[in-house]
Amino acid sequence: MSKPKQQSLFEEEELPENPMPWERESAQDLYLAQIVLNRPVDRVFHYLVPESMRALLRAGHRVQVPFGRGNQLSPGYCVGVGPAEENQPSIRFKTVEAILDSRPLFDAKMLKLTRWIADRYLCSWGQVLECVVPAGVKNQAGTRMVTLFELAAPSHLAGDDSAALIEKLPAKQRAVFDALKSAEKPLTLEELTQSAGCGSGPVQSLKKKSLIRSHQKRMQHFENDDDVVHAHIKKEDDLELNPDQCRALDQILEAIRGQRSETFVLHGVTGSGKTEVYIQAIREVVSYGQQAIVLVPEISLTPQAIQRFRSRFDSVAVLHSHLSDSDRHYHWQNIAAGKVQVIVGARSAVFAPAPHLGLIIIDEEHETSFKQETAPRYHAREVARKRSELESVPLILGSATPTLNSWLRVIEKKDTLISMSKRVNDLPMPNVNIIDVRNDVQIRRNDSIGRVLFTGMQHALGAGGQVILFLNLRGYSPALWCKGCGNSVKCPHCEISLTWHRDKNLAVCHSCDFSAKPPTHCPGCGAPGLRFVGTGTQRLEEEVKAKFPGYKCQRMDSDTMRGVGSHARVLNAFAAGEVDILLGTQMIAKGLDFPNVTLVGVVDADTMLHQPDLFASERTFQLIAQVAGRTGRGMQGGRVFVQTASPTEPAILKAAEHDFLSFAKYEMGHRKEMLAPPYSHYARVILRGPQEEHVQEFARQLSQILSDAAEEKKLSVQILGPAPAPIIRLKKYFRYHFQLAAVNVEEILQLWREVDGKLPREKGIEYIIDVDPVNMR
């Protein structure tokens, strides 16, 4: 394969002066720009392009345009530009005021991708483009406008008068002139005065005499590039692959060398060496001068994987939430210039402006964090699939527990399955013990660690092993309960029980962040003596320290891991053996590979199982299987104890057997009977407002309008609801929802487009639509 031509999308360039706006009334010789704006209206607006901009403005540029009745200047995105069509109506067009960037931010393929997202997820094109570009890029963070000085044009200095004037210059002015004459490039004022050994006065005097000239240019002043170039990291050689890994890599390389779009579902058990397959596939891509995008669920939680990428490749950009705007802008420019080989990031990294893209990888593709919860509500997996198609590059979806959506595509032969059923070095899968805690004496007296798990931890720690404990509830007690009326104390703004955080002595709402001192009396019935019920990670940590005082314990949840680099520090300490017991929420269930972990305990396997959610069983299976995979990665082997009050649940039983195939067959059988995803598509319409009865009535109106339209257009879309949302009150608003269900998602999209714009508006009530939702609360 020939090496692609390197071409930068971003180069330092002098920006043009803002032209004066102008208008024409005739349609003849019009040159128009198609502009979309960050508004919830999916419409392309036409603006007149001044002659001074015609050679500069391109599709993909960000521009400034007057918008609305007040002609307020607003940023927009140019998605097309050219002469007006012959039948263009003769109207008075508003004019593009300014081009905001020296180079287009989007190429033609990215414009196609973003247009597809707008159509697929029922939002505006402008909202998608606004989401794609980081704020640091839009604000040009890390750059500043500077004034550069250089000698006047040679023709201006050639005359006898100029020569005489130069000869008569005072010493300091002459020093400035000579400094510019000997300089290889224009100088800033600071550079010039330092070189000439003077102040700014002589510089301004020379400018008045027209012997030197100045112009403005945007320059970079990034402070560091530690996240891109890591020369201090010791480089490592590729590992020798086992037969399963070789077969997987060969299939992927065939698609890479054939430059074809193909989606591979890499189903490998935990510890089977999927990351090494990713790395060696990327190695092939990089050898062609191309780039790879690797999406991970939560970038700050996978320091081990990032370290492995940095130890193998010369330039790795890591995009995460802790980056400053300046760093984001810097990475964007380096990626767009083709200077970065591997881009590792969370879901938004799927939009990385890689001009030589050769491969896309989504690790742990089952994770719900790949779905955006705010507009545009896209799923990174589906966006990656579309980008793979547009770029003609392979896509790898890796997981030990693939989503049932991905699995159905394998069954239907739409995607290619690659199986890795054995662990590296033929290590056995850990033995998983399901512990029925309904009659456990220690659990009955409100301990979190039952007898069997306690004994197992004693043996593991006594033998020099390490322990991981998983509990997906943060805080100390998840509920404050009243014996008098039997109700829990709820957030005043949400229909959610408050969680007691003992370290701050605050009752906290984990949805809106409301916090207050815990009440001494029940707000409902006034009875005194509220009880703190249930166990969160804070209480579990306290119990572990009391029962195992001789061992170092560390908690990982969103309360303790707020600082920059906090995840890496804790995990490095655990890897070094400085921590014996690591406990936390789902952030410890992903991407961790510690050979000395010989026991994993799932403290409460039922926390997700009984949620009012269609996907509760699937997520319970995924979580237990993933947590169980954190142990048995060394020669000492490992054991897993799963504490549950539902020991016969299929999701728990199949996870204990490491049997994804049986679970998928069982769960998909139920889904097929109900015609539920993945055998159909849902779009969820959520309404909210300050008065419940108004929201309820408006939900009925909208659902009826949609139902009537579906019947009129003969679309096979079923309306489910409306009904109160599982959390009926959230952040002071009452919430109702209903769902549009259809086997073919295109029918849902068509129905919404038919009625969108015609739907009534109700003062104070907002509504949104979420296509293929993953969060049903």
Automatic annotation (TrEMBL):
Keywords from the UniProt entry: ATP-binding, DNA replication, DNA-binding, Helicase, Hydrolase, Isomerase, Metal-binding, Nucleotide-binding, Primosome, Zinc
Note on how the cofactor is bound: Binds 2 zinc ions per subunit.
Quaternary structure and interacting proteins, as annotated: Component of the replication restart primosome.
Catalysed transformations (reactions): Couples ATP hydrolysis with the unwinding of duplex DNA by translocating in the 3'-5' direction; ATP + H2O = ADP + phosphate + H(+)
NCBIfam families per the UniProt record, alphabetical: priA
InterPro entries linked: DEAD/DEAH_box_helicase_dom, Helicase_ATP-bd, Helicase_C-like, P-loop_NTPase, PriA, PriA_3primeBD, PriA_3primeBD_sf, PriA_C
Pfam families (UniProt xref): DEAD (PF00270), Helicase_C (PF00271), PriA_3primeBD (PF17764), PriA_C (PF18074), Zn_ribbon_PriA (PF18319)
Class of the enzyme per the UniProt entry, highest EC level: isomerase
Gene3D superfamilies assigned: P-loop containing nucleotide triphosphate hydrolases, PriA, 3(prime) DNA-binding domain
Role according to the record: Initiates the restart of stalled replication forks, which reloads the replicative helicase on sites other than the origin of replication. Recognizes and binds to abandoned replication forks and remodels them to uncover a helicase loading site. Promotes assembly of the primosome at these replication forks.
GO molecular function ontology, one term from the record: DNA binding
Residues annotated as domain Helicase C-terminal: 517-676
Superkingdom as given in the UniProt entry: Bacteria
UniProt record similarity statement: Belongs to the helicase family. PriA subfamily.
Binding annotation for Zn(2+) 1: 482, 485, 522, 525
Protein name (record): Replication restart protein PriA
GO cellular component: primosome complex
SMART domains, sorted: DEXDc (SM00487), HELICc (SM00490)
GO biological process terms on file: DNA recombination; DNA replication initiation; DNA replication, synthesis of primer; double-strand break repair
CDD domains, A to Z: DEXHc_priA
Domain Helicase ATP-binding: 255-420
